[in-house]
Design brief:
The complex is a heterodimer of chains A (390) and B (301). Chain A contains eight helices and 20 strands. Chain A has 390 residues and is α+β, with helices and mostly antiparallel strands. Chain A folds into two domains: 240 residues, P-loop containing nucleotide triphosphate hydrolases (Rossmann fold), CATH 3.40.50.300; 131 residues, Nucleic acid-binding proteins (OB fold (Dihydrolipoamide Acetyltransferase, E2P)). In chain A, the strands form four sheets. Chain A has a six-stranded mixed beta sheet, sandwiched between helices. In chain A, helix 2 crosses helix 3 and helix 3 packs across helix 4. Chain A is elongated, with a radius of gyration of 25 Å. Chain B is mainly alpha-helical and 301 residues long. Chain B has a domain of 202 residues: MetI-like fold, CATH 1.10.3720.10. In chain B, strand 1 and strand 2 form a beta hairpin. In chain B, helix 12 packs antiparallel against helix 13. The chains are: A alpha+beta (390), B mainly alpha (301). Chains A and B meet through strand 6, helix 2 and helix 4 of A and helix 8 and helix 9 of B.
Chain lengths: 390, 301
């Protein structure tokens, strides 16, 4: 049996330190395009130095939120403050933010160095200062020596670095990144992920990134806001989003999940029981759920948190942290997907519901050698399921 | 049907022959005849001998005709410049309007094409003449201003002197700009409409104002569109015949009017042909310049 983490609920965790002066604050921001509401009453604070991700499916309003920050859209309602100052009256060219566009938007008719110098020229910086700062910025994004190239002589990844240098050279208060990795191939994307994080640490500027890719957000961001249909679904650190989702939408959007609808049968401070129609056994939890008894709840179980054991008839498996009969169900393996580092199984429960479970391939030969149509027990710890009220 | 035309030579020839024949018969041959005339001499009212003389070209390069060429170039150049100045904001506005409005605005731009040029030109005469709408409006304003001056105890302005807007070079330029504006707006619009909007947003984001963005980003990227707009405005304007004929005065003839007179009233086909070919060479130079701009833009990607 693996170690059981002592942290079980969101409430057990220390509250994240909320500083009094956020660098950016959205106050009841709503954006309507005609009759459609793109952003619906968003209130959100972003602290200085954060690498913040706006995460959500396409059309959820995350890009609109970013564009309102840059000044390309104006809120229909609400206020946006940067350093405590309302920026409604500031046009895009007067805001202390710079953006890296999804298409990079590198000016094709200018040399790389001129692209990077563009913003400084607009600010009227002296020529000597422009020269040194452009060189520094190109060095920062590892494009030193390519200043004389034209953009069409660069690869996609290099063009993105030009866009990064062009925005960072202006030393903005906040750097906005619109789907920064979406146009790169898989290998380059992994590399840019870690480079973006180290770049952010180096320059110390607040980064706000828009992405629809949950892996990307979890890997890069220090904090994420998940958006759904214009509304903020949850704002939390990547680990909290994954382990303590606050709704079915978040649990489903971030990572892979098995979701079961059930009824809250018992809810006490240190234990709770949920009865799900699709699960033969009751779901026992070693903590309370703040919901009304008898109400409908959803149990979210991450596939990697489900253990699988051989079932050769006989007595049912017993989990040591749950009463006998709870948190253990019988099933049959129906599908196996070998992925190298892990293997994904699909197990059919009695009653037909299929459940995903992931097993890490810890040894080169799996001693247990699970195979198709094999009867198994699925079991989980009392702390593993997340109980969702909405 | 995976064959290329190289395999199906007969079919290709059958399809290609009619247009090739048509172009040869009605374009290449007449043009060659006119070209041959440039080296000919009038020997009778309707007979021309091909003597291989360069006298027609020599005469065409006399100061009198060179002056008319120069004047045509200036008028066509001025027309093109005005079309660009007026057309660029129009094209920009259309490119940035909503899809619905875009369709209507483009329709409005193209509407004049569906009206006969002669009718449009006569309509312009009705607008510009001394008893035309422009002068009516100005006179009304003048009289009202005059009445107002009297009212507040100042000297009245006196009698309104109608402006002479017709039968001079100004009228020709106004008419040519009016006729050629769509030729300028359409290529500009198509260049601006294709442009990646995020480039303009990036410029704003980096601290440039709107005018600066237009000058540093939009204009350079629209250069090929501007070049083709300039070309297809300049070439027909240079060879304009009807507009200077109807709107111009005695001193506002353009080269096409002179050519027309050689072919008709003067009955000097060889000289008219020489003038025509000089005009065509000028056109080729303009096209070559445009190709140069285009190639430079293409190299940039």
């Amino acid at each position: 049996m693996t170690d059981v983490s002592p942290v079980h609920t969101q409430a057990d965790k220390p509250a994240s330190p909320v500083k009094p002066n956020p660098i950016i604050s959205f106050e009841g921001v709503t954006k309507r395009f005609g009759k459609t509401i793109a952003v619906d009453d968003v209130t959100l604070q972003i602290q200085e130095g954060e690498f913040f991700a706006l995460l959500g499916p396409s059309g959820c309003g995350k890009t609109t939120l970013l564009r309102m920050l840059a000044g390309f859209e104006t809120p229909s309602e609400g206020r946006i403050l940067i350093d405590g100052r309302d920026i409604a009256a500031l046009p895009p060219n007067k805001r202390p933010v710079n953006m890296v566009f999804q298409s990079y938007a590198v000016f094709p008719h200018m040399k790389v160095a001129d692209n990077v110098a563009y913003g400084l020229k607009m600010d009227g910086a002296p020529a000597a200062e422009i020269k040194t700062r452009v060189a520094e910025a190109l060095e920062l994004v590892k494009l030193g020596g390519l200043g004389e190239r034209m953009p069409d002589q660069l690869s996609g990844g290099q063009r993105q670095r030009v866009a990064l240098a062009r925005a960072l050279v202006k030393r903005p208060r906040v750097l906005l990144l619109d789907e920064p990795l979406s146009a790169l191939d898989a290998k380059l994307r992994d590399q840019m992920r870690s480079e973006l994080t180290s770049l952010q640490e180096k320059v110390g500027i607040t980064f706000i990134m828009v992405t629809h890719d949950q892996d990307e957000a979890l890997a890069i961001a220090t904090r994420c806001a998940v958006m759904n249909r214009g509304v903020l679904a949850q704002v939390a650190t990547p680990a909290d989003l994954y382990e303590f989702p606050n709704s079915r939408f978040v649990a489903d959007f971030v990572g892979s999940v098995n979701m079961f609808e059930g009824v809250l049968e018992k809810d006490e401070p240190n234990q709770a029981v949920v009865r799900c129609t699709e699960l033969a056994a009751p779901v026992y939890l070693d903590h309370g759920v703040t919901g009304a008894r008898g109400s409908t709840v959803w149990v979210a179980l991450r596939p990697e948190k489900i253990e699988m054991h051989k079932r050769n008839g006989g007595e049912a498996l017993k989990m040591e942290d749950a009463p006998a009969g709870a948190n253990v169900v019988a099933g049959v393996i129906r599908d196996i997907v070998y992925l190298g580092s892990e293997t994904n199984f699909e197990v059919e429960l009695e009653g037909g519901r299929r459940v995903k479970t992931f097993r890490s391939n810890l040894t080169r030969y799996d001693q247990e050698d699970f195979t198709w149509d094999e009867p198994v027990w699925l079991a989980w710890h009392a702390c593993s399921p997340a109980v969702l009220l909405s | 049907m995976e064959q290329s035309w190289k395999q199906a030579k007969t079919a290709f020839a059958a399809v290609a022959a009619p247009p090739v024949f048509w172009l040869l018969l009605f374009f290449v041959v007449p043009l060659a005849v006119i070209w041959a005339y440039t080296f000919g001499e009038n020997t009778g009212p309707i007979t021309i001998d091909f003597t291989g003389t360069f006298a027609n070209y020599a005469r065409a390069l006399e100061p009198l005709y060179l002056g008319i060429f120069a004047k045509s170039l200036v008028i066509a150049g001025l027309t093109t410049a005005l079309c660009l100045v007026v057309g660029f904001p129009v094209a920009l506005a259309i490119a940035f309007s909503s899809p619905r409005a875009k369709a209507w605005l483009l329709l409005l731009i193209m509407l004049p094409f569906w009206t006969n040029l002669l009718i449009r030109t006569f309509a312009l005469i009705a607008v510009l003449r001394e008893q035309g709408y422009v002068n009516f409006t100005l006179e009304w304003l003048w009289n009202n201003a005059s009445g107002f001056m009297t009212l507040i105890g100042l000297q009245p302005l006196g009698e309104y002197e109608p402006l002479t807007l017709l039968y001079n070079n100004t009228a020709v330029v106004i008419g040519l700009v009016y006729v050629h504006l769509p030729f300028m707006v359409l290529p500009l619009y198509s260049a601006l409409d294709r442009m990646d909007r995020s480039l303009m947003e990036a410029s704003l984001d980096l601290g440039a104002g709107h005018l600066r963005t237009i000058w540093s980003v939009v204009v350079p990227l629209a250069a090929p569109g501007i070049a083709s707009g300039v070309l297809i405005t300049f070439i027909p304007a240079l060879g304009a015949y009807l507009t200077p004929d109807l709107l111009g005065g005695t001193d506002s003839q353009m080269i096409a009017n002179v050519i027309e007179r050689q072919f008709k009233r003067a009955n000097d086909w060889p000289f008219g042909a020489a003038l025509s070919f000089l005009l065509m060479y000028l056109t080729f130079i303009a096209i070559a310049l445009q190709a140069l701009v285009q190639r430079r833009a293409d190299r940039r990607g």
